[in-house]
């Protein structure tokens, strides 16, 4: 996870990206979080970023350990979610003992991992019958202005995998169950811009190209009839979660 993320973020300071994550990235719906982990109480959130999923897990009084490979994101995580245990590590090398978790989850993170190695490592950390859970918030591009926003930002590997039902896990895990929930997030214009700025593709752009892309988003929001003149914009999302269990 660490190397692939570092490559995607080449040329940009990650501290700036961490702040864009805090402002721009959405939380996870409580129903999706509850479905993802079921009755598990001891949960590991891998690739936790600034703690969006971590916070949702803690809100339901679970014992959460957050694992994040990047030092800048980890610092933001510790600031934003101080009640979580936050450790540096990767999906392929979790800093945790065998059979120490009842659920291991990945929010917006599984598409960064080496699937076979990360699956084996999750199985090592899970108790028998423990849950491996994967979840993504994806903008609902069936809405016209959201589709145009996506054209500017470009799609992601995760979005393509979800759309094509191509999300996969490795041994020893079996077939994935799937859950989808639609919802909307009220946002200001600059929050939408921050959401775009937090995307790995955008972070990796040279500064002039990055600023030009973000300005195109401001122009879209200013001109599109569904968003023009609004101080608050409802950005529709579809949260898709997958889970399976360690045999």
Description:
The chain is built from 11 helices and 7 strands. It is an alpha/beta fold and 247 residues long. It has one domain: Rossmann fold (3-Layer(aba) Sandwich). α6 links the parallel β4 and β5.
User: Are there runs of 5+ residues with pLDDT below 50, and where?
Assistant: 1-13
Strand order of the largest sheet: 3-2-1-4-5-7-6
Shape: globular
Tell me about the biggest sheet?
A: 7 strands, mixed
- What is the assigned CATH homologous superfamily? Vaccinia Virus protein VP39
SSE run:
HHHEHEHEEHEHHEHHHE
- At the fold tier of CATH, the topology name is Rossmann fold
Computed CA radius of gyration, to the nearest angstrom: 18 Å
Pfam families: Methyltransf_11
Protein name: Class I SAM-dependent methyltransferase
EC number: 2.1.1.-
Domain Methyltransferase type: 44-132
Write the SSE topology:
Elements: H1 2-8, H2 14-24, H3 30-37, E1 42-46, H4 52-59, E2 63-68, H5 71-80, E3 85-88, E4 101-107, H6 115-125, E5 126-139, H7 144-153, H8 157-163, E6 177-187, H9 189-197, H10 200-203, H11 207-223, E7 233-245
Helix pairs in contact: 2-5, 2-9, 7-11, 9-11
Core attributes:
seven-stranded mixed beta sheet, 41% helix, disordered N terminus, Methyltransf_11, alpha/beta, Class I SAM-dependent methyltransferase, 247 residues, methyltransferase activity, Rossmann fold, EC 2.1.1.-
């Amino acid at each position: 996870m660490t190397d692939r993320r570092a490559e995607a973020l080449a040329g940009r300071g990650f501290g700036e990206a961490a702040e864009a994550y805090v402002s721009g990235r959405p939380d996870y719906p409580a129903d999706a979080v509850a479905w993802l982990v079921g009755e598990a109480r001891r949960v590991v959130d891998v690739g936790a970023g600034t703690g969006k999923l971590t916070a949702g897990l803690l809100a339901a009084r679970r014992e959460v350990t957050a694992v994040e490979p990047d030092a800048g994101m980890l610092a933001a995580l510790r600031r934003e979610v101080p009640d979580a245990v936050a450790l540096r590590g990767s999906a392929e090398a979790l800093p945790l003992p065998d059979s120490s978790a009842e659920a291991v989850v990945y929010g917006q993170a599984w598409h960064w991992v080496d699937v076979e190695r990360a699956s084996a490592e999750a199985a090592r950390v899970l108790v028998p019958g423990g849950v491996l859970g994967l979840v993504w918030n994806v903008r609902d591009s069936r809405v016209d202005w959201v589709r145009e926003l996506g054209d500017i930002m470009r799609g992601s590997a995760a979005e393509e995998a979800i759309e094509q039902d191509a999300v996969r896990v490795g041994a020893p895990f079996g077939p994935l169950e799937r859950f989808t929930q639609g919802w909307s997030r009220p946002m200001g214009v600059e929050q939408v811009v921050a959401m775009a700025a937090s995307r790995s593709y955008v972070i990796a752009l040279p500064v002039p190209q990055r600023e030009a892309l973000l300005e195109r988003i401001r122009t879209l929001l200013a001109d599109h009839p569904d968003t023009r003149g609004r101080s608050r914009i409802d950005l529709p999302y579809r949260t898709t979660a997958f889970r399976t269990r360690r045999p």
